Amino acid sequence: MLAPSPDPRLAPQEQLSAEDRNACRALLATGSKTFFASSWLLPRDLRDPATALYAFCRLADDAVDHGDGGVDVLDDLDRRLDAVYAGDPFDYHADRAFAWAVHHYRIPRALPGALIEGFSWDAKGWHCDSLDDLFAYAVRVAGTVGLMMSLLMRVRDPQVLARACDLGVAMQLTNIVRDVGEDARSDRIYLPRQWLSQAGVEPERLLAQPEYTPQLGRVVQRLLKHADMLYERSMAGVQELPWRARGGICAARLLYAEIGREVERRGLDSVNQRAVVPARRKAAVLLRVVPELAAYHRGLAVPPLEQARALIESVESCCPDPALAPTAR
């Protein structure tokens, strides 16, 4: 029988092995470059579980993107996740590392389960009609990662978790505005179709013949404004994280938000080009980490995105005893 909740006694290893750690880092060095760069600012005791988390998420995403997207792929991911929570992961570096992380840090299965559910929406040809639809998707494929990262820091306060989810969603919105053309050429649209229609952009035409227009640019700008609002709101949560982790998370936040600024510098055209932040500008952005952490940021008590509420509640249900999940400061 599968364990109903994560249990440190089911972890396949006491500490993450050097072999699994190195394999996961090698995967992220080529597949998740922004995370890989900012992860070096995390303390070692957080860098290892974060690496395990991102490696499993990267492989799950790739399995859907590069597989046939069918039921077999999704069933395989579910079986792998069941095995992780049973303490008997498949013989993959990322699965063993992830099993170590979820049991030691008591990550409820609902979180990676929602992540895989979001991937399944992609595989099934999900349509994004409204901003609420987009938030539902982004909470699953990215907000869950923010929640899991918080649990790796042993932070389980609902207000801080809500802001962590905001940060994950903001990053996903940034991905979407950066990849409009790439997604359209893959027969996908993540911009709300209602917004496109209101702006005079025909979604089916965009899929058939991806091209930049000022009308499309206005939709991109509109989504960037929502991302910026979530980035700003998330900073109130970053300031509540353990002090040793704040720098790395703030750096990731600033680097991702800068992608949006790069899209703007390129005239909001993310059809004919893909915004990449130059190394020199990344270095300049990182100089803003300390001032950003020192500034006062509002929004900690703002209610969570409605689409994230049940996932945040699953954390409390998983580990209600504060003694089992102390907040590290």
Automatic annotation (TrEMBL):
<dbReference type="GO" id="GO:0051996">
    <property type="term" value="F:squalene synthase [NAD(P)H] activity"/>
</dbReference>
<protein>
    <submittedName>
        <fullName>Phytoene synthase</fullName>
    </submittedName>
</protein>
<dbReference type="InterPro" id="IPR033904">
    <property type="entry name" value="Trans_IPPS_HH"/>
</dbReference>
<dbReference type="InterPro" id="IPR002060">
    <property type="entry name" value="Squ/phyt_synthse"/>
</dbReference>
<dbReference type="GO" id="GO:0004311">
    <property type="term" value="F:geranylgeranyl diphosphate synthase activity"/>
</dbReference>
<comment type="pathway">
    <text>Carotenoid biosynthesis; phytoene biosynthesis.</text>
</comment>
<dbReference type="GO" id="GO:0016117">
    <property type="term" value="P:carotenoid biosynthetic process"/>
</dbReference>
<keyword id="KW-0808">Transferase</keyword>
<dbReference type="Pfam" id="PF00494">
    <property type="entry name" value="SQS_PSY"/>
</dbReference>
<keyword id="KW-0125">Carotenoid biosynthesis</keyword>
<comment type="similarity">
    <text>Belongs to the phytoene/squalene synthase family.</text>
</comment>
<dbReference type="InterPro" id="IPR044843">
    <property type="entry name" value="Trans_IPPS_bact-type"/>
</dbReference>
<dbReference type="InterPro" id="IPR008949">
    <property type="entry name" value="Isoprenoid_synthase_dom_sf"/>
</dbReference>
<dbReference type="InterPro" id="IPR019845">
    <property type="entry name" value="Squalene/phytoene_synthase_CS"/>
</dbReference>
